[in-house]
Design goal:
By secondary structure, this protein is mainly beta. It has a domain of about 90 residues: Immunoglobulin-like. The chain contains one helix and seven strands; from the N terminus they run H-E-E-E-E-E-E-E. The strands form two sheets. The chain has a four-stranded antiparallel β-sheet with strand order 1-2-7-6, with no helix packed on it. Strands 3-4-5 form a three-stranded antiparallel β-sheet, with no helix packed on it. A hairpin with a 2-residue loop joins strand 3 and strand 4. The longest helix has 13 residues. The chain is elongated.
Amino acid sequence: MKMTPWNPFRELDELTDRFSRLFGRAPLTQGKSDSLAGSDWVPPVDIVESDKEYLVKVELPDIPREAVKVQVEDGMLRIEGERKQETEEDGKRFHRIERTYGSFVRAFTIPENIDEGGIRAEFKDGILNVRLPKTEKAKPKGVQIKVN
């Protein structure tokens, strides 16, 4: 099992980010936690577990498939990419820009019981689905011990 160093301030950073989003402001610590290092913005992620697999769902609207890279290395799932900002052209002016642009990186420690060779990623309608199939893990045998 890979050990991840504990950062006592990570939870505080995440709490601050949640409050910022609640009140409609940009997160103050954006790009500073372990899974968000080096990011200009952070796409939302859902991670769902079933009996057979883990499913990582990432919202990537308006990003072409070619701009997204998914890799697994040293027990980490790493998803990175970039959303480029449109430029003003003749006859076209922007009155409001609220979406965030730039590069992003999301990294997650994956459990040991994952079949790395069976990992699949599919990109459809702005949603990236990464499927991490589970392997059959040897169940520990119960041993009855007599107490004298």
